[in-house]
Amino acid sequence: MRRLRTDILILGSGGAGLFAALHAQAANPSLSITIAVKGLLGKCGCTRMVQGGYNAALAAGDSVERHFMDTIEGGKWLPDQDLAWTLVTGAIERIHELENEIGCFFDRNPDGTIHQKAFAGQTFDRTVHKGDLTGIEIINRLAEQVWARGIARLEEHRALEFILTADGDALAGVLLVDMRDGEYVLVEAQAVLLATGGGPTMYRFHTPSGDKSCDGMAMALSAGLPLRDMEMVQFHPTGLLAGAHTRMTGTVLEEGLRGAGGYLLDGRGERFMLSHDPRGERATRDIVSRAIYAEMRAGRTTPNGGVWLSMAHLGADSVRSQFKGMVERCADCGFDLAGGRVEVVPPAHYMMGGVEFAADCTTALRGLFVAGEDSGGVHGANRLGGNGVANSTVFGAIAGDAMAAWVGREGSFRAADARAVKAAIERAERPFHTGEASDLEEIRERLHTTMWDDAGIERAGGALDALARQLRGYAMPSAARDRAFNMTWHDWLNLGNLVSVSEAIVAAAVARENSRGAHFRADFPEPGELSASTFTRVRKVADVLAVDEVPVRFTRVRPGESLLTT
Ligand SMILES: Cc1cc2nc3c(=O)[nH]c(=O)nc-3n(C[C@H](O)[C@H](O)[C@H](O)COP(=O)(O)OP(=O)(O)OC[C@H]3O[C@@H](n4cnc5c(N)ncnc54)[C@H](O)[C@@H]3O)c2cc1C
Fold it and tell me: What does the pLDDT average to over 272-296?
């Protein structure tokens, strides 16, 4: 095992990780900062995949109060209001920083102001974008800044477990594995940022990048940290359905298509949304996803088992000019979006839940900070489109500032518990030494089926114990035991984390006996009293999940009230 030391260790290089690195370095250039990432810096994670854009209340007529109320009402009164306020105020600063210091170009109006487009669930057009490739612009420019500043990088390094001090009182470092040679690396750090970006890839259909498998959330659960809102998994209504053989299945077809007047048709070619909601296809993400799922359950499906998205009635030329990127993406899979119909399915898209944290990104574990999709509490029961990348960049920047200040004030290197390191390595080594060979593909298939059928858009409970046991007993075939880029090993690690976080999702979903936002239970279809709202808190105690229901504190506005005067 190699050992390294760095003042600040950042896990993940999405919007949260890169912003944190830049801010920490600007706050104190004498600190050593290291970014460890499972993929290649600038090329992995979901921030790069952002299509639609970034919400910020910039325009005349809009306000942070309006953005805040949209976020709270969209989140069905479950968001932590102080976190949501930090999000909406910080988003304006970050957009200016992205343009003026980081070098991003966003689309502009003829008068030179930033162009902002409409996104569902918002009362003002506030989504800043660069065409429909906003994430690439943001990540490329951020990565250039990181490369230029001598921030250390551990690429293709996968974080495995947090290593605490012997008394369990604080974080001492993180055990990683260098995926290129399979060697373990213990990185001791004064402060660590968890920014691995969640990623609900345990569902059969999903949108996030393939490197994401809820690793950070699983690490936090094993370290006994509390996670909130885990039952709140957002499904995007329209993911491309191009068959099981291609990773293009799940690719998001943006909301603007329905916003522009696109129809959803069942397998017989009939519109069905108007029987679910008077807004038809323009209803919110949760309602449209559930309606599609109902059609699928009733068997009224397309050849691949989804429904049709149809734009042809709007005129092929007009669709082609408005949605160039989408039309090309569909054409790659043999579909004519402009003049024909495209098969779609609602894929799992985003996790509103995550590690509980304060507005300065501190967590219950001394030395550990969290930002981005690994964190919970900003969005409550639903995330507005455009608030995801705002969340990761706003809190990433705060985490960078906060970690630099914390290291200066009270940081120190703390001795890692040697027994904990040994035990973590033994857990990771399991498939090399013990157990019986079984088929990881078959385990993944069962996980996908369990989560899609029993803990997906509709909730009915489900058991994952057998999968966890089977994974613990898994042995790698001897021919596949070379450690360099051993994808079978990493698949096994990914699946272990996905099963662990799936258990937390199911535990929280069973505990919530009402339906709010992304969480719907046929046996408890009502939202419950808003003024008595609670959020779920899941934690692992002695390897068993415990769920508490914690009252939401309405620190700025109560249900029925508004911060808006008009
Ligand atoms: C297709 C798609 C479109 C989207 N469009 C929008 C949009 O228009 N607007 C919006 O606001 N949001 C959008 N989102 C959501 C948005 O992308 C995310 O909310 C946000 O970018 C998450 O940022 P992050 O920094 O937390 O994580 P990410 O950007 O996902 O970065 C996570 C990083 O952690 C690394 N990592 C993972 N596991 C480990 C490990 N074990 N060890 C080390 N590193 C690890 C990954 O490799 C990656 O570098 C979209 C998401 C998807 C999937």
Answer: 90
In ligand 1, the atom with minimum distance to the C-alpha of 497 is 41
236 carries an active-site annotation: yes
Question: Active site includes 258?
Answer: yes
Q: Which pair of tokens denotes residue 36?
A: 């460890």
What is the chain's mean pLDDT, rounded?
Answer: 93
pTM for this model (two decimals): 0.95
- Average pLDDT score over residue span 76-93: 98
Let me know if 403 is exposed, middle or buried by CB neighbors in 10 A (0-12, 13-18, 19+): buried
Contacts 24+ apart (CB under 8 A), 310-317: 310/262, 310/263, 310/264, 310/265, 310/340, 310/341, 310/342, 311/257, 311/260, 311/261, 311/262, 311/263, 311/337, 311/338, 312/338, 312/339, 312/340, 312/341, 313/261, 313/263, 314/260, 314/261, 314/262
| Nearest of 11, 16, 13, 10 to residue 388 by alpha carbon | 16
* Å from CA of 537 to ligand 1 middle: 23
Per-residue pLDDT of 2-11, as tens digits, reads: 999 999 999 9
The rounded Å distance from CA 12 to ligand 1 centre is 9
Kindly report, residue by residue over 125-148, the tens digit of the pLDDT.
999 999 878 999 999 999 999 999
Which stretch of DSSP H or E encloses residue 34?
strand 33-37
Q: What is the largest CA-CA distance in the chain?
A: 69
Relative to the CA of 139, which ligand 1 atom is closest? 29
pLDDT of residue 214: 98
Using the mean position of ligand 1's atoms as its centre, give its distance from the Cα of residue 102 in Å: 19
Mutate to test the pocket of ligand 1, among 117, 196, 247, 495 (most ligand atoms within 8 A of CB): 196
- Which of the residues 129, 228, 236, 521 is marked catalytic? 236
Q: How many CB atoms lie within 10 A of CB 213?
A: 26
| The ligand 1 atom nearest the CA atom of 13 | 49
Strands across the sheet containing 116-117:
54-55, 127-128, 116-117
Distance CA 73, CA 382 (A): 9
pLDDT tens-digit readout, 447-486: 988 888 877 666 554 457 778 877 787 888 777 788 999 9
Which one of the listed residues 23, 67, 129, 258 is annotated catalytic? Answer: 258
